[in-house]
Amino acid sequence: MLSELPAFIPMELPKTLETFGLSPKEAVIYLSLLELGSSAVQKIARKSGLPRATVYDILDDLSVKGIVSTFEQRGIKHYTAESPEKLMQLAQERAQLMEAALPQLRAIYRSPLDRPGVRFFQGQEGMKVILEEVLQDRH
After folding, report:
1. Domains of the chain by start residue, with CATH
2. According to the model, what pLDDT value does residue 1 have?
3. Has this prediction a pTM greater than 0.90?
């Protein structure tokens, strides 16, 4: 986990990208690239505050995920962040895949009422869960 975000990154953006499925370091590197445009690893490492070796590994992962692309210029590899719209497109594709799998997942799923078993609840949170389940069963 990053101890401190670079000053140019608003605090909520990395959390949003983490929800999308990026690690904290991947989020910082992606945001650094968005601001820099096309850049070599050394510049990205400086901007993100991460070690160059770490940045190489993370850029490779982001390339595999399809949100960073590469090209060579004068023998130096440069990286470019894909547009934020590309992230949205990838999220929509994931949602469509999940939606397509949902009928099969439902067919496999057995309701807790169908399964014998014991569950333990503790404290007020446990009581809330029990109450919600009882109320759900009534409808």
Report:
1. 1-139 (1.10.10.10)
2. 41
3. no
